[in-house]
Amino acid sequence: MDEHAAREALLAVREEALTRLADLGISRDDVVQASQGANIDDEHDPEGSTIAYERALLEALAASARARIADADAALHRLAAGSYGTCEVCREPIGAERLAARPIASRCLEHS
Protein backbone atom coordinates (compact mmCIF):
# COMPACT_ATOMS: atom_id res chain seq x y z
CA MET A 1 0.00 0.00 0.00
CA ASP A 2 1.50 3.33 -0.98
CA GLU A 3 1.69 6.24 1.46
CA HIS A 4 -1.26 8.13 -0.04
CA ALA A 5 -3.53 5.07 0.05
CA ALA A 6 -2.43 4.27 3.61
CA ARG A 7 -3.15 7.83 4.77
CA GLU A 8 -6.59 7.75 3.14
CA ALA A 9 -7.40 4.38 4.73
CA LEU A 10 -6.25 5.56 8.16
CA LEU A 11 -8.20 8.81 7.93
CA ALA A 12 -11.30 6.80 6.96
CA VAL A 13 -10.86 4.53 10.00
CA ARG A 14 -10.43 7.59 12.22
CA GLU A 15 -13.49 9.38 10.77
CA GLU A 16 -15.66 6.27 11.18
CA ALA A 17 -14.61 5.96 14.82
CA LEU A 18 -15.26 9.67 15.46
CA THR A 19 -18.74 9.34 13.96
CA ARG A 20 -19.44 6.24 16.04
CA LEU A 21 -18.26 8.03 19.19
CA ALA A 22 -20.54 10.99 18.49
CA ASP A 23 -23.50 8.68 17.84
CA LEU A 24 -22.82 6.80 21.07
CA GLY A 25 -22.79 10.07 22.99
CA ILE A 26 -26.21 10.89 21.61
CA SER A 27 -27.46 7.40 22.49
CA ARG A 28 -26.12 7.70 26.05
CA ASP A 29 -27.78 11.09 26.45
CA ASP A 30 -31.06 9.55 25.25
CA VAL A 31 -30.80 6.73 27.83
CA VAL A 32 -30.02 9.16 30.64
CA GLN A 33 -32.79 11.55 29.61
CA ALA A 34 -35.33 8.73 29.35
CA SER A 35 -34.53 7.57 32.86
CA GLN A 36 -34.78 11.02 34.49
CA GLY A 37 -37.96 11.63 36.35
CA ALA A 38 -39.09 8.07 35.91
CA ASN A 39 -40.00 6.14 39.02
CA ILE A 40 -38.61 2.87 37.72
CA ASP A 41 -36.97 0.12 39.69
CA ASP A 42 -34.80 -0.85 36.75
CA GLU A 43 -32.64 -3.18 38.81
CA HIS A 44 -35.62 -5.49 39.29
CA ASP A 45 -37.42 -4.98 35.99
CA PRO A 46 -38.29 -8.41 34.54
CA GLU A 47 -38.90 -6.85 31.11
CA GLY A 48 -35.30 -6.54 30.02
CA SER A 49 -31.94 -4.95 30.58
CA THR A 50 -31.40 -2.31 33.18
CA ILE A 51 -30.66 1.31 32.48
CA ALA A 52 -27.34 0.85 34.27
CA TYR A 53 -26.52 -2.03 31.92
CA GLU A 54 -27.40 0.05 28.86
CA ARG A 55 -25.22 2.91 30.09
CA ALA A 56 -22.32 0.54 30.79
CA LEU A 57 -22.67 -1.01 27.35
CA LEU A 58 -22.65 2.40 25.68
CA GLU A 59 -19.56 3.41 27.68
CA ALA A 60 -17.75 0.22 26.65
CA LEU A 61 -18.59 0.89 23.00
CA ALA A 62 -17.40 4.50 23.38
CA ALA A 63 -14.14 3.29 24.96
CA SER A 64 -13.66 0.99 21.97
CA ALA A 65 -14.23 3.89 19.56
CA ARG A 66 -11.74 6.08 21.49
CA ALA A 67 -9.17 3.26 21.33
CA ARG A 68 -9.69 2.95 17.57
CA ILE A 69 -9.12 6.70 17.18
CA ALA A 70 -5.90 6.39 19.21
CA ASP A 71 -4.81 3.42 17.05
CA ALA A 72 -5.46 5.41 13.87
CA ASP A 73 -3.53 8.39 15.27
CA ALA A 74 -0.61 6.11 16.20
CA ALA A 75 -0.61 4.59 12.71
CA LEU A 76 -0.65 8.08 11.15
CA HIS A 77 2.34 8.95 13.34
CA ARG A 78 4.14 5.78 12.17
CA LEU A 79 3.35 6.76 8.58
CA ALA A 80 4.86 10.22 9.10
CA ALA A 81 7.90 8.70 10.81
CA GLY A 82 8.46 6.19 8.03
CA SER A 83 7.83 3.09 10.14
CA TYR A 84 4.28 2.34 8.97
CA GLY A 85 3.93 -1.24 7.78
CA THR A 86 6.75 -2.55 9.96
CA CYS A 87 5.96 -4.96 12.81
CA GLU A 88 6.72 -3.38 16.17
CA VAL A 89 7.93 -6.74 17.53
CA CYS A 90 10.09 -8.34 14.82
CA ARG A 91 10.69 -5.25 12.64
CA GLU A 92 9.72 -7.25 9.54
CA PRO A 93 7.23 -5.88 7.00
CA ILE A 94 3.55 -6.37 7.78
CA GLY A 95 1.84 -8.14 4.88
CA ALA A 96 0.02 -5.97 2.35
CA GLU A 97 -3.13 -8.07 2.76
CA ARG A 98 -3.11 -7.47 6.52
CA LEU A 99 -2.64 -3.72 6.08
CA ALA A 100 -5.41 -3.63 3.49
CA ALA A 101 -7.76 -5.43 5.89
CA ARG A 102 -6.59 -3.62 9.03
CA PRO A 103 -4.78 -0.38 8.19
CA ILE A 104 -4.09 0.37 11.87
CA ALA A 105 -2.15 -2.88 12.36
CA SER A 106 1.15 -2.38 14.15
CA ARG A 107 2.14 -6.06 14.20
CA CYS A 108 2.48 -8.82 11.65
CA LEU A 109 0.16 -11.82 11.84
CA GLU A 110 2.76 -13.87 13.68
CA HIS A 111 2.95 -11.32 16.50
CA SER A 112 -0.66 -10.17 16.65
Automatic annotation (TrEMBL):
Pfam families xref list: zf-dskA_traR
Origin: domain of life: Bacteria
Query: Where's the Zinc finger DksA/TraR C4-type domain?
Result: 82-110
Gene3D superfamilies given in the database record: DksA, coiled-coil domain
Q: Kindly list the ranges of residues that form dksA C4-type zinc fingers according to the record.
A: 87-111
Molecular functions (GO terms)? zinc ion binding
Keyword annotations of the record? Metal-binding, Zinc, Zinc-finger
Q: Which PANTHER family match?
A: RNA POLYMERASE-BINDING TRANSCRIPTION FACTOR DKSA, RNA POLYMERASE-BINDING TRANSCRIPTION FACTOR DKSA-RELATED
> What is this protein's record name?
RNA polymerase-binding transcription factor DksA
